[in-house]
Protein 1
Amino acid sequence: MTVTEQPVLVASRKVRAALDSLLEPDAKEWAKAAVASIPLVPTPVDRQPSAYVRASWSERPRGAVSEIAVSTLTNARALAVRLEWEAPRPSRRISDYNVYADACAVLFARDGRLLEHETMGSPGHPVEGWHWRAGTDEAFVINATGLGTATRVKAHSVCASSRWSEGRWQVVLARPLEADGVPLAKRKKVPVAFAVWTGVAGERAGLKSYSPQAHELQVGQ
Amino acid sequence: MAKDTSPQHQFAMVLDLNKCLGCQTCTIACKTQWTRGSGMDAMWWNIVNTMPGKGTPRNALDLGGGYRDGEPVPGQLPPKAEWGEAWDFDYDEALFSGDGHDYLRPREHDGASPTWGPNWDEDVGAGTYPNSYFFYMPMICMNCSKPACLEACPRDSIYRRDEDGVILIDEDRCHGYRFCIEACPYKRIYFNEQRVIAQKCISCYPRLEAGVAPACVRQCPGRIRHVGHLDDRKSNIYKLVKAWKVALPLRPDFEVEPNVFYIPPTLPVAFDEDGAFDDEAWRMPIEDLRAMFGPGVDEALATIETEREKVAAGGRSELMDILISYNWKDLLGPYPEDPGQIPPPTFDSRKLQR
């Protein structure tokens, strides 16, 4: 595992395994996958779309997670992305008004080409996000064309599973290759970015750790 | 700076604190109508607090939010216990235990006896006998002209209706981030943990659209609530707020320009040391009333006193006629229709979408 500030190619290896198996974060298949370490940084407060959030968070620590380990596997029909990061104080669910759950997301260019992840896309270059939030293994999928524009997609094929063990979250997000959403053609590289929200720090919305540059994900053969 | 979202008309309400009975009929009318759904057990979009008191949630008006010199003020988000759980009641224990000594006791979900809840300060009041005092203060969404909640939402989920200035949360857009609850200086937005969305008083907008006044207004046995359009110069709302200047915003220092206004409490005459009426003294320190309703409270109270004396002397007063509300329907302004004549309004989150 290497930490780099250059764009990372997360290559997906093809395995013979059912999707249900890949959705197990500790399945033995994941030992076969290459692991890329992606550096994360806090999102800039001055870029938050709400004046209230800018005023409230200008002095608050955020972006506690500085690194995320990413690996991907492909079977004949689906792509699975596994994210793992350090979470010594996990927030496993929204258990109160003032409790926020840990979460993570993978962001794609909606057309699989140019990813404008810093601005959550633009009208000409929409983005698609696959979200997981602790407390529910139901994945959310969002489309966005700029900061504050994210809209949940009502019908999608992304599924998620999670495990917290020894101070780390392990989350798998998976989708059939042939499905509505970002095109995931075999052997194709798609730009991708990552984000992690730390619940105990009050992180939600645009307050998070994110990969400041786009990386590449290569779908397996 | 707050966003300028001026509507065509501004729905507004005036509540006469000299007439509020604290009966919570408004609270139950609202509860019955709107907050019986999933995750809404502990929600009281309308609540009547006893003042002086800590409010609902605890210390509601001291938790930040709103603006100062036009800049957003960071606010706190109290845990659910500070708002009050939806208590359980053991009817079997109270009604069928057999010994006749048990009563219907509220219990927290863990079985504990509650130590806080909505309007926990019921009738605590302040002052020293015989000059002790309290008054009731109903609280709902203020439909602010500079809504801090709306500006706080990074998802643009909150909007102000162009037709009447009513502020609504689009439940499809809301992702439950809760910045709006922090930013509301009156803490009148609740969090639905089950649906992970923010919810609040909707000013009974389905009723407004059918010409029916909000449930809290129609059900009020004290006739304390007036509704109408603030921009309608013929309305009682306009007369009370703009012409007579006796209806005041709560905590104008929050800079959110609320569209719910209060007739400040005059409270009973104070006694002096000899037990005689002291016309010069106030039971409630005037500084406290100024802190609540702003510097206009002196003039408002003086006007009310003057008009009362005019009537007491056998004269007529337009202001007293409005406040007494001889004709109940005068309270309802442009919303006089009978809810019995329309289909029951239903809570449909799709209608909250823009």
Protein 2
Amino acid sequence: MTDAFNDHDERNVLAGELALRLLSPEEEVRARALQNTDPDFADQVEGWNAHLAAFADGIAPVEPSAGLWPRIDAATAPTANDNGRVAAFWRTWAIGATGLLAASVGAVAFLVAQPDPVVPPAPPAVVQGGVTRVATLALEDGAPILTIAYDTATGNLFLAPTTQLAGQDGVPHLWLVKPEGGVQLVGAITPGASSRLALTNILSGVAGEATAVAISIEPRGTTPAQDTPGGPVVASGEIQQL
Amino acid sequence: MAATLTRDELAVALGRTGLGDRAAFRIVYEATSAKLLGVCLRILADRQLAEDVLQDIYLTVWRKAETFDPARASPITWLVTIARNRSIDRLRSAAPMRKTTPVEDAHDLADAAPLASDILEHSDEVKRLNVCLSELDDKVRGVIRTAFMDGVTYDTLAQRENVPLGTMKSWIRRGLLRLRTCLDQ
């Protein structure tokens, strides 16, 4: 980069890059963390969103099919046991994933292929309220380093890291990337050792909504803040739903 | 079924949606779903996938409407930002399934689209953006527009334009800085 920007310009441009979604996954995780912790930067991103939304004026409207509203209406309707908003929260994962089905099945196949898997045999497809969310993460060279599966019914998070992570100079930590921006620390990962975590209520809510997961490498003997990686982000992957 | 609402009317409907008003939620849907599907379809290029994502978007709107602050954002900006980000998330999670569109073709698509803005109340914003974009070089204006319309990264833009990644970053970063200076005036 030969452009000589001052710090203010750099942050402003970074806010624009984040709003436009130009950044690589790793850069985006770092920028989202900044957005989550720095109100001024968050305001800059919001400012860009306001300006850039005007581009949408050049996009022709397309009427959705008549069946879409009834599905949304049903998914947000109140039930006997909740206020509708909660129902929508859970049903978000249970619908509308046709475009991801092939990729998700591939992710599960990879999960099963991991050596020494701790993940039990896949439960029957129909479990009450159970929707599994999966993600695979790889280093830049494509080497797989971690597969996760999250059971939204039980709050259990299954981790199957490979030994590839062991070569890193530091301790790998897992992060959830929130849909509205920002990240949430899950915890440290032991390379090569599969594990199962029962997430707390707060973490399980974030895990249910997260759009991606990421791995940072933190210096040994340190614990990063809950919402900001202290070390470099070495891998990330979108969460896909079954 | 597209209803025409003013910005203030849409903001009120969105605010009431945040309070759990299902009739208001329906009004928001009817006034904005065609515009948001246009945004999704522009990025995802697949009707079924775009409608799946649109369904997710309105479930998000139902859950998050209480966080909408009309003092901080226009309702359509808030909705378009959600729609675009959700579409991009889905695009990137299904990247191998995506066919690429040359930048030139993307310009044609964007320019050919009629500017039917039944709900975009921020016409001043549109004019200001267009004025400021007109001050940029054609190629820079084109790639920034494509970045928004197609939701693609620096890497993809560089490949499409067949230029080094550093060159693409330099074009856009300088373009964004000029754009922001102009927009803030």
Protein 3
Amino acid sequence: MFDQIIGNLSVLTAAPIFAVDLLFQGLFIGAIFALAGYGLALVWGVMNVKNLAQGDLVILGGYIAFQLAAWGVHPVVALPIAFVVMFAFGWGIYVLIIRRVVERDLFTSLLATFGLSLLIQQTLNRIYGPEVQVVESGLGSREFADGLMIVPDVRILSLVLASVLAAGIIVFMRYSRMGQAIRATSQDARAARVLGIDTDRVYAFTYALNSAICGATGVLVALIWVIQPFYGIVYSIRAFIIVTAAGLGNLPGVIFTGFGLGIAEKYSDFVLGSEFAIAAVVLFLVFVLIWRQIQMYRVRQVVR
Amino acid sequence: MSFIRKDMRALAIGTTALVALAASGAQAKVEGDTIVLGSAISLTGKYSTNGIHAQRGYDFAAKRINDTGGVKVGGKSYKIKIVYYDDESTPARGAQLAERLIKQDGVKFMLGPYSSGLTKAVAPVTEKYKIPMVEAEGASRSLFTQGYKYLFAVLSTSEQYLASSIALAAEIAKKNGKKPSDVRVAMAFENDPFSLDVRAGVADDMKKYGMKAVVDDKLPRDLSDMTATMTKIKALKPDLFVLSGHSKGAATAARQMKEMKIKVPMVALTHCESSKIIDKFGASTEGILCPTQWSETLSYEGPLFGKASDYDRDFKAAYAGYKNVPYQTAQASAAVQVWKDAFERANSFDGEKLRMALTKTKMSTFYGNIKFSSAGNNIAKPMVLRQIQGGKLKVVAPLKWASAKIVWPRKPQY
């Protein structure tokens, strides 16, 4: 165990190019998780709905890309299509289900979104079967440092797409009327209503936007990893970890946390072994929570 | 008072009905000239694809037996009928349905469910009621370390899945004038009971040859990315890369080997077929070694179905839409064939006599030889290793049944 860790570390010091490689891999996976986390932070922060179907929305987006690829649509084109389709889907889900649980207690919304998660899983399983599926982009790989570091183009593409998406959403939230209304509603829903904001519409838009972000994320997941009707839970859990670590209401923080966790995961995967990759991420979360407790303690003392 | 009396009467009627049901159940094992076998199998849920493959294997064998004179017991010819319930791919439901098959439907002869997990859930139930079960889809080694007496499996157990690739690597090393102990192995296994069984078999064989593991990663079940493992492989340049992680692991590994242009001379993966990596990633999968329980190109032969290739042809004729017959189907048929053989040798429907007959099973079939150890697993059939050559899977080991020569080092097109 320990000699293996030392061996792995010596590989990194002997050939630092691998450390660079890991850094990029961390950024690539971080981008994907950051997007799923961002959507969850939005829904959680604005509507106080803990969306357990988050990962299943991601997988649903993946299957949209899969279906479009079967019809001959290139995945880069599939991404905006999935975004729009999932936006409409999210709006529909809000009207049908979420609207009825927004004002209720925690468990009602947990149960409702859990049920939604099961429904999506089994429907996808009915239509596409339980096989693992992928979408091929047909793009090659780039070589650096005499082939020691190889970066697949599809990952660069997904990083770019994820960045564009994230930047677009941040700008939208800051400057558009709807973005302002969403932020106002998340601060104080009742006050927002008094000032003439149609909070129901804001909620619907927020959930639809989250669903669209998830859909786009799903396209990227199908492009660089694999999709299967029951794999959504991975993205749900990761999104919850990211939002918890970033802190509720800290939307830009979610993006940084996503990248940070991605990089932490890759390095611990390499050095400690894959069995500790997820453990390292959760450990990271624990440290963040402890650190935040200490901070809060200081604040409480000042108040006292 | 009167309503209590009414309740008592209802209770009495209910009890009578239950007794009657139980009595009719007791005869359900053989109804007239029909032997009733039972199975809880995954017809919906995440195992449904393979569950249905297995069910078709059961049905195909039952039909073949019924069409060719049935099962002869005590000079009389019996037909086979199989009762199914859908376990929805959940172990708890599987155990519940096994109880129902045995207690309510009175089934005395069981066929297994799909997957090791479900078999693990059902086996304690059949054991409790002393009902023999011949299973075809649960390979986990841990099934055969519990001391189960009524469990019989026709397939090879999980620790044999990739062990043959180690022997093959040793052979190639010797041919190239190297010592088998010089072979450096990269291992990546998912952290679940099945894959860890596969790993245990590989580790045992590596120890036998004195091989060294340069990478030994256990992939968490919810890990979707293997790039760190791939980076490690690129840095350490092993001679052999073995991986097992269900369809997800196989598909992810194939994709990322392609993306990162991994140049290991020998690569062995489980679940090549169910993950359809050849269709998905084409020439980049060239030369990958894939273990399988069975292949239609093997020279196995036996009564009822004839040769392996005959089974393949007949099954495709009976069920349209199959390009390849999955081994899950073949072994399911073999399990029904084992039951027929046991009935005829025991010449009885008595559970204990049948169990004794099953322990003495020794047959050659289209699926391979079948002989059970005292633990109930089949020890007469080896695991077969196939290699992807020109987009097709060709048997390369064991040499006795091989139809093609191994290509080493593998030459993938990235």
